[in-house]
Design a protein that fits this description.
Elements: H1 3-16, E1 26-28, H2 34-44, E2 47-55, H3 61-66, E3 70-77, H4 80-93, E4 98-102, E5 115-121, H5 127-133, E6 134-145, H6 151-157, H7 170-180, E7 183-197, H8 200-208, H9 222-231, E8 233-234, E9 237-251
Parallel strand pairs: 2-3, 2-5, 3-4, 5-6
Antiparallel strand pairs: 1-7, 6-9, 7-9, 8-9
Helix pairs in contact: 1-4, 6-9
Bound molecules: S-adenosylmethionine.
Length: 252
């Protein structure tokens, strides 16, 4: 991750008031909702005696939602704008066991073996740092973007996050890296599903709020968007194929 990520997320937080888009869409999950499965796994390993870290907590809405399941929850992010929103939400919700701070994922300001549990919800995944600050027998959980995410959309645009890496399995690469860093992978699963946007305006709004194309420009990309919308037009809107991976690993 780089400075351009920081700028990108600062811009999104300013424009949308956090990490969210107002784009209307429906989801179709033929093999389960990965976000629900990630949450189930996180709850399974949670505990009132546990100290947990959320890497790339963004506007903190998820961090704050699960804070009550833990003794103490830390959230770090590189974007000051996202953190400002997170702190505002924390104050509004009066949550006292969450510590939200600015930090770079690659240089985490925590001592060795500090955390019982660490997770990244579509955030950075610096495995060497995670391996250093997690306790032995602690769990690391991640939900991340798969290699086939938005493939058809990126092909029409001729660019995008992970463009062309369609056959390099993220699940395998990540699992192998975790093993090298001293983890045992206990759960890893790919999820393929669809989002249906009712019209081009909602797909456009969605694309402004995510890093699929960090340089997305609604004027310059008008033709790409039109061409994609025509090609992937389904009965109730425009289909966008998604790919997520959920991984759970235990530190040996
Ligand atoms: C896709 S968002 C994560 C959303 C959030 N975890 C959630 O559950 O809604 C990715 C976040 O990671 C943060 N990020 C990106 N690179 C980073 C880095 N090197 N160090 C810390 N945070 C980073 C971004 O600022 C952004 O807020």
């Amino acid at each position: 991750m780089s400075i351009s990520d920081q700028k990108f997320y600062d811009k999104v937080a300013k424009k949308f008031g956090g990490y969210k888009s107002e784009a209307i869409h429906e989801n179709h999950f033929p093999s389960g909702n990965p976000e629900e499965i990630f949450l189930e796994q996180l709850i399974k390993y949670s505990g009132k005696d546990k100290t947990v870290l959320d890497i790339g907590c963004a506007d903190g809405r998820f961090t704050l939602k699960i804070a009550e399941k833990f003794y103490k929850i830390f959230g770090i992010d590189i974007s000051s704008e996202m953190l400002a929103k997170a702190k505002q939400f924390q104050e509004e919700q009066n949550i006292s066991n969450a510590i939200l701070q600015k930090a770079e994922a690659e240089k985490l300001p925590f001592q060795d073996k500090y955390f019982d549990l660490i997770y990244s919800r579509r955030g950075p995944s610096p495995y060497a740092e995670i391996g250093r600050i997690i306790k032995s027998s602690g769990y690391y959980l991640e939900i991340c973007i798969g290699e086939k995410d938005g493939k058809e959309l990126k092909e029409v645009f001729g660019r995008g996050q992970g463009f062309g890496d369609w056959n390099i399995s993220v699940a395998k690469t990540k699992s192998d890296n975790l093993v090298v860093k001293g983890f045992k992978v206990v759960f890893v699963h790919d999820y393929f599903y669809s989002e249906i946007y009712p019209d081009i305006e909602n797909l456009n709004l969605f694309l402004q709020s995510v890093p699929i194309f960090k340089d997305f420009d609604q004027e310059k990309d008008r033709e790409n968007l039109r061409s994609y919308s025509e090609k992937f037009n389904v009965s109730n809107g425009i289909e966008l194929k998604r790919h997520r991976i959920v991984i759970v690993a235990e530190k040996l």
